[in-house]
Amino acid sequence: EAEVAQSPRYKITEKSQAVAFWCDPISGHATLYWYRQILGQGPELLVQFQDESVVDDSQLPKDRFSAERLKGVDSTLKIQPAELGDSAMYLCASSLGGPGEQFFGPGTRLTVL
Amino acid sequence: AQSVSQHNHHVILSEAASLELGCNYSYGGTVNLFWYVQYPGQHLQLLLKYFSGDPLVKGIKGFEAEFIKSKFSFNLRKPSVQWSDTAEYFCAVNAGNNRKLIWGLGTSLAVNP
């Protein structure tokens, strides 16, 4: 069964350092999403790609966060510099497009010390 | 702004008890509705979805949900829970032309054997 892959699964870093997360969506899925999930809350959309184009990054803190999907396949989310408040689970999801089902990866648990 | 409200943040049940988790949304037009589940240590996965047609939808593992348009609700039900249903449950709504999923805060369900 096809799955969304994410790495690393866990990341511990010190504040002011740079971190990067990687996501490989299900093959053929044009839409890719990055979410942040804080414990006890639902996922919050950070950025949405349609192929290689950003279609929604309204909730992405652009002063420190960046995301790219250069070839319209895998994607990288970067934080520089990391802050204590960035500690959370970062989820990647993909879908064929439209309002259909999103398929989630296992997430990257980020701890900023 | 569109929002999703899940009434119960923590629910504790004994095995064989019936379950109903409430979900209400704020949007007056056409909606697509989802329930996702996150089992301990696993990634988010789709439990069931409603796009159109029969307002009573059936999902995996014996779960069902009823869309009541007049009440803006999409409550999740299961007649008899099992210990393996222990998980976090999220209601999500995709409304109108906005392709963004709006998530509830989630309900943590613990089923005692």
**What is the ordering of alpha helices and beta strands of chain A?**
EEEEEEEEEEE
Give the largest interface: A-B, 20 and 22 residues
Distance between the termini of chain A: 37 Å
Give the count of helical stretches of chain A: 0
Terminus-to-terminus distance of chain B? 41 Å
Q: What portion of residues of chain A is helical?
A: under 10%
Helix vs. strand class of chain B: mainly beta
Give your account of this protein's structure.
The complex is a heterodimer of chains A (113) and B (113). Chain A is an all-beta fold and 113 residues long. Chain A has strands at 5-7, 10-13, 19-24, 31-37, 44-50, 53-56, 65-68, 75-79, 88-95, 103-104, 108-112. In chain A, the strands form two sheets. In chain A, strands 2, 4, 5, 6, 9, 10 and 11 form a seven-stranded mixed β-sheet that branches. The model of chain A has no long low-confidence stretch (mean pLDDT 93). The termini of chain B are far apart. Chain B is built from no helices and twelve strands. In chain B, strands 2, 5, 6, 10, 11 and 12 form a six-stranded mixed β-sheet that branches. In chain B, strands 3-9-8-7 form a four-stranded antiparallel β-sheet, with no helix packed on it. Chains A and B meet through strand 5 of A and strand 5, strand 6 and strand 10 of B.
List the helices and strands and how they pair.
The complex is a heterodimer of chains A (113) and B (113).
Chain A: E1 5-7, E2 10-13, E3 19-24, E4 31-37, E5 44-50, E6 53-56, E7 65-68, E8 75-79, E9 88-95, E10 103-104, E11 108-112
Chain B: E1 3-6, E2 10-14, E3 19-21, E4 23-26, E5 31-38, E6 45-50, E7 56-58, E8 64-68, E9 73-78, E10 87-95, E11 101-103, E12 107-112
In brief, what are we looking at here?
The complex is a heterodimer of chains A (113) and B (113). Chain A is mainly β and 113 residues long.
Q: What are the defining features of this structure?
A:
heterodimer; A: 113 residues; mainly beta; 7-stranded mixed sheet; 4-stranded antiparallel sheet; 11 strands; B: 113 residues
